[in-house]
Amino acid sequence: MAEELTPENPENPENPDETEEPIKQRKNGLYPGVSDELAENMKSGWADTELHDLEPIAQAAETAARRAALSARFPGERLVIPAGNLKTRSNDTEYPFRASVEYAYLTGNQTDDGVLVMEPEGDGHAATLYLLPRSDRENGEFWLNGMGELWVGRRHSLTEAGKLYGIPASDVRELADSLREATGPVRVVRGYDAGIEAALTDKVTAERDEELRVFLSEARLVKDEFEIGELQKAVDSTVRGFEDVVKVLDKAEATSERYIEGTFFLRARVEGNDVGYGSICAAGPHACTLHWVRNDGPVRSGDLLLLDAGVETHTYYTADVTRTLPINGRYSELQKKIYDAVYDAQEAGIAAVKPGAAYRDFHDASQRVLAERLVEWGLVEGPVERVLELGLQRRWTLHGTGHMLGMDVHDCAAARVESYVDGTLEPGMVLTVEPGLYFQADDLTVPEEYRGIGVRIEDDILVTADGNRNLSAGLPRRSDEVEAWMAALKG
């Protein structure tokens, strides 16, 4: 990784008295400074790269409709929605940036330091997208600043951004001062940009800001057609990622769970933006750890692999799919018994997903099947109604049976309880159905042969006008179909 000359904004080489920020040389940098001749040389000789024939992004109509709904909900109020800032990973390296979901949902833009501001205007709002403009070549920022374009790549000009996103764009460096002078009611989405929040500190309240956050979370409960298409893209790529993994299980056996993680990650980066969350590549007893993301354990023939992973599209929509696979291609008798119980529970859960149903219905249907099997196997004392009333099955089922899915893997998390878990399913909602059974390696309440077996099956389900559609139906679920699929992929 190359070492930039100066990590801060340089002085204006035309007039040393006009300094944006003093030059801060890297302590152990190899160049002591910049000569006047070099500074002058770097100003000129560059081609005009302005892009003139840009078309609006694919979701421009949808983001405009979302802003209109937001405007209608908060008439007469200034609304401030930041993208967020880069976060330091270590010393002078940053984590990959991912814009806040609220900002990306309303704009389609993914630029760090961006801010959407909606100013009251007439009966609605005028939206402005505040962004960093192109790097300044006159003052050398483009090559001397660590965030200059020579170091991190070309940014869109403000004119280009306006064309792409359908929102007039302005220089974000002027926004904080403008907000300090703002009058009238203001709301901001908190937690992403400390500088913007500081500029508004005497103008906002936590209660009012939370109302804005909740509204934007609930707005995503029902997906539009663009979002459903993106989720299907994410799932389709995820299916191919699972196929990739099955084809290299022999290499994973020779190395570790990391080989599985890396294999799926390659598919995510080639076809999408990233993985939507840390991939869970849990072999053997690690399958009983719900969020096993260390992925540093052995992969052994005869064990099960619980793979919970999802590709995130370039527009931030993520799949969330789990399959529990026999590493050697065949389930043992006990593995199959447990797997089939989870499959039956998932079938019951999926059948309960339909418009007008209570959100909780799919969870209750799945849990009932699992409780019945646990009683049948003698692992918990019945009757089933008693088990469910006391939640005794949870020792082995552990988690809820699903969640909303979208731009966050656990989407709409800030929504009101009455709108989400106590709400009613509507066409356009997308949720996971993912029952599981987990018998911990140290659980002395179950027969020894059960210990260390964990099974989860998870699919992404779209609520339709007449029922549901399994977006991840491209991956087999029934145990015999899984075995046949694996055999075909291994050739």
TrEMBL record:
InterPro entries: Aminopep_P_N, Creatin/AminoP/Spt16_N, Creatinase/aminopeptidase-like, Pept_M24, Peptidase_M24B_aminopep-P_CS, X-Pro_dipept-like
UniProt cross-references to SUPFAM superfamilies, sorted A to Z: Creatinase/aminopeptidase (SSF55920), Creatinase/prolidase N-terminal domain (SSF53092)
Tagged with keyword Manganese: yes
Organism from which the protein derives: Streptomyces salinarius
Family according to the record: Belongs to the peptidase M24B family.
Catalysed reactions, semicolon-separated: Release of any N-terminal amino acid, including proline, that is linked to proline, even from a dipeptide or tripeptide
UniProt GO molecular function: aminopeptidase activity
Region (Disordered): 1-34
Name of the protein: Xaa-Pro aminopeptidase
